[in-house]
Amino acid sequence: MEPDARKAVVLYQTAAKKGFTPAYYHLAQLYENGIWVDPDDKAALKWYRKGASAGHMKAQHMLAWYHVKGWGRRRNIKRAAELFHEAALAGEVNCMYDLGRMYHKGVGLPQDMGKAMTWFQEADKLKHEDAPAAIFKCVLQLILSLLC
Questions:
Q1: CATH class assigned to 1-75
Q2: What angle do CA 13, 15, 19 make, to 5 degrees?
Q3: Of 32, 76, 107, 123, whose CB neighbour count within 10 A is largest?
Q4: Distance between CA atoms of 70 and 64, rounded to whole angstroms?
């Protein structure tokens, strides 16, 4: 590891240990992606948990994905849905979109096109780049169901 990279990791760790919430998220990102440290899903999970517990919505979004994928822990789709929902209510756009996807596909939640549309529309209001296509798919699916 280069001296500047080593110093950056130490600074993030120090900030995280002092309770600086954004450092939890950034430290988790370093461990998740193997930037300046060896990749470590368990360490990333630890820091995403701390960030989510401290109210960092991006950390909560990533923690939800760790539950979906089973990275560093056992898969728990129900818990992922709860985390997405909580952060979506707090205004986290990616969680709005992902919650819409869960309702649309019926993964971890009962399939509900109305709730899927609601969350996709909320994500679209905040300019999520994939929301318009998701809304289109829901409308198309609804039209096809009426025709068949």
A1: mainly alpha
A2: 110
A3: 123
A4: 10
Residues 89/96, Cβ–Cβ less than 8 Å = no
Minimal CA–CA distance to 100: which of 79, 78, 130?
130
Domain limits of the chain? 1-75, 93-148
Cβ pair 32, 39 in contact under 8 A: yes
Hey, how many other C-beta atoms are within 10 angstroms of the C-beta on 29?
A: 18
> What is the length of the chain?
148
Round to whole Å and give the CA distance between 83 and 135: 22
Cα separations in angstroms, 80 against 47, 66, 69, 85: 16, 8, 9, 8
Contacts of 94 (CB under 8 A, 6+ apart): 58, 61, 123, 128
Side chain identity at 45, as an amino acid letter? L
Read off the pTM: 0.88
Q: Which amino acid would we find at residue 123?
A: A
Predicted confidence (pLDDT) per residue in 17-43, tens digit: 999 999 999 999 999 999 999 999 999
